[in-house]
Amino acid sequence: MKIFDLLANGKQPVITTKLEAVYNVLRENIVSGKLEPGTRLIIKKIAQDLGVSEIPVREAIRMLEAQNLVTMTPHAGAQVATFDLDDIREVTDIRSLLEGYAARTAIPFIGDEAIADLEMCIEEMERCIHTEDNVNFGILNRKFHQKIYEHSPLKRLYRMIYEMWDGSERTRAVFSLSKRRPQESVQEHKAILKAIKEHDGDTVEKLIRDHRQRVGSILIDHLKKK
């Protein structure tokens, strides 16, 4: 894993310091599920893999610990934080309600340009499936939903959803944990887009809620088996 290998939407991230670079790489690998919960983070090895000293690695791990993405355990050192199943259930229920309603209220304001953007997202997601690029698939998945909800006239609702995304971004790991999930997700997105084009608010709201609940259920089922 090289320090500049991590791409987002096909673009090189802007890096200002080695600390920022290490932090970005580790965080993305945790959030995307490449580094599974409980994985030990061996500072010396990470530093060697990224071609940096151990100092920025230690500092990046401290930053991730402050965000509850990493835990420090006596005699075991740094580990990728495990998921809280009750928290996943609660967040899933809240997000499904908020996002379903946001999509319903957004429909009258989604024009041809936004429809084209949503279609492009789906096409790019399908390309990610072929290349097995789960990292960018997860980023595009969020982009698809964002482009819907941002058209809601309820701006406070949109801000609430955005804040919840930042606090539950690790659900993107589902695309790495479940081999079938990316293809299933694309089909669900196509159904959502079809309902949007038909201005069918009831169906859009239900599809969004079911979509969000399915992600939570897959993630919980996987974690229960570990």
Automatic annotation (TrEMBL):
Membrane-crossing ranges are none
- The protein's name in its UniProt record: GntR family transcriptional regulator
> According to the lineage, what is the superkingdom?
Bacteria
Q: Where is the HTH gntR-type domain?
A: 16-83
State whether keyword DNA-binding applies: yes
Q: Which UniProt keywords apply?
A: DNA-binding, Transcription, Transcription regulation
InterPro entries, alphabetically?
A: GntR_C, TF_FadR/GntR_C, Tscrpt_reg_HTH_GntR, WH-like_DNA-bd_sf, WH_DNA-bd_sf
